[in-house]
Design goal:
The complex is a heterodimer of chains A (about 130) and B (about 500). In chain A, about 20% of the residues lie in helices and about 35% in strands. Chain A has about 130 residues and is of the alpha+beta class. In chain A, a hairpin with a 3-residue loop joins β2 and β3 (about 25-30). Chain B contains 15 helices and twelve strands. In chain B, α6 (about 135-155) crosses α7 and α10 (about 330-365) crosses α13. Classes of the chains: A alpha+beta (about 130), B alpha/beta (about 500).
Chain lengths: ~130, ~500
């Protein structure tokens, strides 16, 4: 069974977000990396890019397919996980830790309220299995 | 059994040059080019002519094509193309015309283009056709640009959202982005059609068009097409139909009658012209009367004076989005499509779609007990199985596809559409015999047994091809794009 980590918020498109004070780390779930298969390339926005909740901010390519990445929150990208450029496999090996995608300076913390809780997300992927 | 690279066959001073020195005095290249255009140490392969010919002939014999075997690659319509089209397309009068010849000297070519436009308009049930786009996705881009131009002309430039069902061709969202639009996905319902409630909620004052792949990538004809058309038009938007799968509908239904405003056709799929690397392609666009003024220009046209008909290129189209391809499109492809339509005629074209649908349904019934069929209803030209039962046994769809190579078949499309887990997307096409379909079905049924009895055999396939299982992951993550093995050159 794919891991659904506690203390995170999730989207229906299988991204997670870990909010701290005014920033949030964004990544894809264990279920997502399992469905994608071996990830071979990730295209992420440059630092300073504005992202909008539920809109695409990048692309992830596996041996199976190229998929859009949807931002769980709106804000400004303040940091990008540079390690993924040479080691996209981190997304498969460590989706919640080393395989994070971007850090975003939050525009509106209230957006977090519409995201799925770990329990809700677990129910969602259970229904997809 | 693998073939070495031509670089590995190389040995200094070997040559294929049998031609005498010319009578023009030789000049040193350094005298002719500036220093920064010169490069030292280029490692070009040096081989004899027999080595060269044998190398490339061997490579060509490793190739698999529809001329060597069954090619059920879903969504691609890899049907057999009659060879007579090649003869027709290479006739001097068609192959050797120049695009800048005076119109009076190319009346036959213009007549062919004009009539092909008329045939495609008749087949699609739409008003006018442009033959210019050079591929299916190019036709899509043309169509979406036309939709934008239409809305702009009506003072509705805010219509920039393109709705794309999740069962659409993957090119549709890419096209919409290229045309400067924003893509919004529409969900599928449980029967594999467009979710009407979702569509109703999404269609609005900013919607430019819905791009509907019909039949969709599940091989299903949307039963609610009339209602879909109503919802889209009620919102003031247009209905774009991706007609790439027209071989399922030829002569059965005209999409124009169902409310389609713009559609493209893939001549290389439906009308039997070469695919991909064997192209070039053509993706003509058909438009309903209100959209026709926005088609690319020129269109082939005819005028009748004193009883004689003359053909010409009509540039007098002020609302046109302009030219989307140099000159008039890929003429040689149009010749083949024209030959196909004329040789089959209306009855023959109807037979094409009947056979395409019959073949797909036959194969689907033969396989549905062995593999899961998530959308179990009559299909059109293709169907999508799921390998989830096999996945539960530890063997993935990728392994099944690789194992098919050992049985001598090209694998189907896999892992697409994305809405089916472990998808196997199978399109037999209309040109295959029942014997071929049966032997393909037997192979897939046999592999399903191997998944249970000999899973390792499947997971390590293929075993009988020139090279075995390739490491696609490392190839994609760390590609080596240039041979640099001078020191590793093969000896002797």
């Amino acid at each position: 069974m794919p891991e659904v980590r506690q203390q995170l918020k999730y989207t229906k498109e299988h991204e997670w977000v870990r909010p701290t004070d005014d920033t949030a780390v964004v990544g894809i779930s264990d279920y997502a990396q399992e469905q994608l298969g071996d990830v071979v390339f990730v295209e992420l926005p440059a630092g300073g890019t504005e992202v909008t909740q539920f809109e695409t901010f990048g692309t992830i390519e596996s041996v199976k397919a190229a998929s859009d990445l949807y931002s769980p929150v709106s804000g400004t990208v303040v940091e990008v996980n540079a390690a993924l450029k040479d080691r996209p496999e981190l997304l498969n090996q460590s989706p919640y830790d080393e395989g994070w995608l971007v850090k975003v300076k939050l525009k509106d913390r209230r957006e977090l309220d519409v995201l799925l809780s770990p329990t809700e997300y677990d129910t969602l992927i259970g229904s997809l299995e | 059994m693998t073939e070495p690279l031509i670089f590995e066959l190389s040995s200094p001073t070997r040559t294929t040059n049998y031609i005498d020195d010319g009578d023009v005095p030789a000049r040193d290249v350094a005298d002719l080019l500036p220093a920064d255009a010169l490069r030292e140490g280029l490692e070009l392969p040096e081989v004899t002519e027999p080595e060269l010919v044998r190398h490339f002939t061997r490579l060509s014999q490793f190739n698999y094509s529809v001329d060597t075997g069954f090619y059920p690659l879903g969504s691609c319509t890899m049907k057999y193309n009659p060879k007579v089209h090649e003869d027709v397309a290479s006739l001097d009068g068609l192959a050797r015309v120049h695009p800048l010849q005076p119109e009076a000297t190319v009346q036959g070519a213009l007549q062919l283009m004009f009539e092909l436009q008329e045939y495609l308009a008749e087949i699609s049930g739409l008003h006018a056709v442009s033959l210019q786009p050079a591929a299916g996705a190019h036709g899509e881009l043309t169509g979406v640009l036309m939709a934008r131009a239409y809305h702009r002309h009506r003072g509705e430039d805010q219509r920039r959202i393109v709705l794309v069902p999740d069962s659409a061709h993957g090119t549709n969202p890419a096209t919409a982005s290229m045309a400067g639009c924003r893509v919004v996905n529409v969900k599928s319902n449980a029967r594999g059609g467009v979710d009407l409630d979702d569509l109703r909620a999404l269609a609005g004052a900013e919607t430019a068009t819905l791009m509907l792949t019909i039949p969709n990538t599940l091989g299903l004809f949307d039963e609610n097409i009339l209602e879909i058309s109503d919802i889209v038009h009620h919102a003031g938007a247009l209905l774009y139909c991706d007609g790439a799968n027209m071989n399922a509908m030829l002569g059965q239904v005209k999409l124009g009658d169902l409310g389609c405003d713009i559609m493209h056709l893939n001549l290389h799929k439906t009308f039997s012209t070469p695919h991909g690397g064997g192209g070039p392609g053509a993706g003509p666009v058909a438009a309903a009367a209100p959209l026709a003024p926005f088609l690319p220009r020129p269109l082939a046209a005819s005028r009748s004076t004193t009883g004689t008909v003359a053909y010409y290129l009509d540039y007098d189209r002020p609302l046109s989005i302009g030219q989307v391809r140099s000159f008039y499109g890929n003429f040689g492809v149009m010749v083949r499509a024209y030959a196909y339509i004329r040789s089959l005629g209306p009855d023959g074209l109807r037979q094409v779609s009947e056979n395409a649908v019959l073949n797909a349904n036959y194969l689907m019934r033969r396989l549905k007990d062995v593999y899961d069929l998530p959308y179990d209803r009559g299909c059109m030209h293709e169907f999508v199985l799921s390998g989830r039962r096999q996945k539960a046994a530890g063997v993935r769809t990728l392994d099944i596809a690789k194992r098919l190579l050992d049985y001598g078949f090209h694998p189907p499309t896999i892992y697409f559409p994305l809405i089916v887990d472990e998808a196997l997307m199978i399109e037999p096409t209309e040109t295959e015999t029942r014997d071929t379909l049966d032997s393909f079905a037997r192979a897939l049924i046999e592999i399903a047994k191997e998944v249970v009895d000999k899973p390792e055999l499947v997971k390590t396939a293929p075993h009988s091809t020139p090279v075995g299982r390739l490491d696609e992951v490392t190839a994609a993550r760390h590609p080596i794009l240039r041979w640099s093995g001078a020191s590793e050159r093969r000896k002797g």
